[in-house]
Amino acid sequence: MVTIGINGFGRIGRALTRINLRHKKYRLAAINDIDQDIDNHAYLLKYDTSYGKLRDDKVEVEGDLIKVNGDAIKTFSEREIKDVPWGQLGIDVVIDASGVLQNVLQAKEALTGSVKKVIVTHAPNQGIDFSYMYGVNSEQYDKSRHDVISSSICDANALGPFYTLVDHEFGIELGEVTTLHPWLSYQNLLDGTLQSVSSPGHQWRDFALGRSSVGSLIPKETTLCGAMTKLVPDSIEKLHAFSFRTPTSIVSSIDGAFLLRKETTLEEVHDALKTYTETYPGVLKLDARSLVSIDYLGNECGAAVDLRWLHLNRGKMLKFVLWYDNEWGYASRVYDMINRLL
């Protein structure tokens, strides 16, 4: 069984842990987080506002260990990924879910002892060997050369497969997409200055980003296009994206339109989607039910294509809506990567 370690025990780190409790594919041997309160980490693993209480799993703390159903997970509170003895614990893959650039830049120093790969759960502009996405560019992955691998961002895990399919089958001239993303922990609950936003090092100048996250849609720029370029380089010439932060806690959506090179029919689009889902299971799902965002909570795919709103205008303008759990769905795609990289 592959052994993993998690660096950064926040929303994605805990989601990965819960997913592993469900699927039991890997042995989780170590967790590193700069917060030294192990009891608090265990508490947050057991009780989650979005995903509920762990009802069938026993979580307890014993010294520097978090024990889940008797299985011991050693904890550390080092500030830097390189200072954790991952390789001495038999760990094969370290997942850096800290979101800290310094950890990305030091990731190669964690490739010691048993450690073969480091997965970075965002899309940094430096420090990585390859940005990987199953069903998008996975055939370009080189196990012998790529050791520090980005799993990109949640929005790209949603759009990337759909974009790749449509571009391959019909060609994309231009694309416009809007992401609707739930609030994040660094945003203000009440109106405040940009300096009051808890996102260290941000360079924002738009005063709207300091406004209350729970009362309005907040327009903002998105890193989606940059993340997509790392996966599909020529998308930079075709794709434009914009974002709203929404006053909801979980589940994102993408509303978009592609101008196609090749005239087609909606039936052909449906057939192509069906073939893709069979070729790359778990990446996209097709859904025609009358659902709302919260109904996709806990969905493990990169995105669900809402067939109710898939529309083709004059054979060339394709309108689409995607739904994705920006935490659980994204973490599930990271979880699925692990065996594919080894």
Structure write-up:
- By secondary structure, the protein is an alpha/beta fold.
- The protein folds into 2 domains: 3-121, Rossmann fold (3-Layer(aba) Sandwich); 155-329, Dihydrodipicolinate Reductase, domain 2, CATH 3.30.360.
- It contains 7 helices and 19 strands.
- It has a 9-stranded mixed beta sheet with strand order 5-6-7-2-1-8-9-11-10, with helices on one face. Strands 12, 13, 14, 15, 16, 17, 18 and 19 form an 8-stranded mixed beta sheet that branches.
- Helix 1 packs across helix 7 (328-341) and helix 4 (154-170) packs across helix 6.
- The model has no long low-confidence stretch (mean pLDDT 97).
Largest sheet: 9 strands, mixed
Our estimate of the beta-strand percent is 25-35%
Number of domains: 2
Q: Give the radius of gyration.
A: 20 Å
The termini sit apart by 12 Å
Briefly note the CATH topology name of the largest domain. Dihydrodipicolinate Reductase, domain 2
Which percent range fits the helix content? 10-25%
CATH-defined superfamily of the largest domain: Dihydrodipicolinate Reductase, domain 2
Secondary structure tally, helices: 7
Which key phrases capture this entry?
single chain; 342 residues; alpha/beta; Rossmann fold; Dihydrodipicolinate Reductase, domain 2; nine-stranded mixed sheet; eight-stranded mixed sheet; 7 helices; 19 strands; 23% helix
